[in-house]
Amino acid sequence: MTERTLRPRATHLSKVPEATALFWTIKICTTGMGEAASDFMGTRPVLVAAVLVALSGTALVWLLLRQFRADRYVPWIYWGTVAMISVFGTVAADGLRTALGLSYGATTIAFALAVAVSLSAWYRSERTLSIHDITTRRREIFYWVTVVATFALGTAAGDLTAHSLGLGYLDSGLLFLAVIAVPYLLHRGSDGRALNATAAFWAAYIVTRPLGASFADWAAVPRHDGGLHLGTGPVTLVLLIVIAALVRQESRQPQAGAIPVTEGAR
């Protein structure tokens, strides 16, 4: 799932990090942090919650603008954007489901279709879905639209297993831990014949959302709900500290990857 066979030469600049073990660790931590932060905001008084949601939305817009304006991969901008998508995206996905009165199953199907449409449109337009082949502004837009869609799908899927299917948070986390190993094993076990690097990457990327969120919920919720009762605030804070430390570590490592994004369509 590192897409090494699809990487351009290491002499070029990149706006997307290489999918290493550190990448996956940070990604899972951001999903857990986003879930805990969203739940924390949801338990605040209405006015306080509204202000927090507005601030997270504003931070997301600001970070996205910084990400698009950057000419290379900048760890704190990239991961800050991912983290804010996790926070604001969770609030938006849950709010949309509640406002429309949809079931977890219905939202899972709807967001799965959204991911499929995004990937399909991306491939029809660019003939590639590789994260190491994002060399135009249009491809970068497709990338971030797909990332948002995967977060929404992961949120719905995690709620579906935990609530609708009655697995609870810990069992859901263990289920998704097993599921995320499938694309890795299919890709590595067949040298890419059963599942190529790009398909394995996106399959795993989707699963990171419910994986991280399930374990974060398990750590935060009360014991009578099957959790460790650590609280959403402390879980959010601890994961933020872990993410900051990991991003700092990653920023010290050399990055190889794609050509800088250009303003043109191609």
Would you mind describing this structure in some detail?
With 266 residues, the chain is mostly helical. The protein contains eight helices and no strands. The longest helix is centred in the middle third of the chain and has 28 residues, at 137-164.
Tag the structure with descriptive keywords.
266 residues, mainly alpha, disordered N terminus, disordered C terminus
Question: Could you say which structural class the secondary elements and strand pairing correspond to?
Answer: mainly alpha
The average pLDDT value, as a whole number, equals 87
The N- to C-terminal Cα distance equals 26 Å
Write the element-wise H/E pattern from the N-terminal end onward. Answer: HHHHHHHH
Helicity range of the residues? over 70%
**Low-confidence runs (pLDDT<50, min 5 residues)?**
3-12, 256-266
Count up the helices: 8
User: Which range does the strand content fall in?
Assistant: under 5%
Please tell me how large the radius of gyration is. Answer: 18 Å
Shape: globular
Subunit organisation of the chains:
single chain
What is the strand tally?
0
- Tell me about the largest β-sheet: none
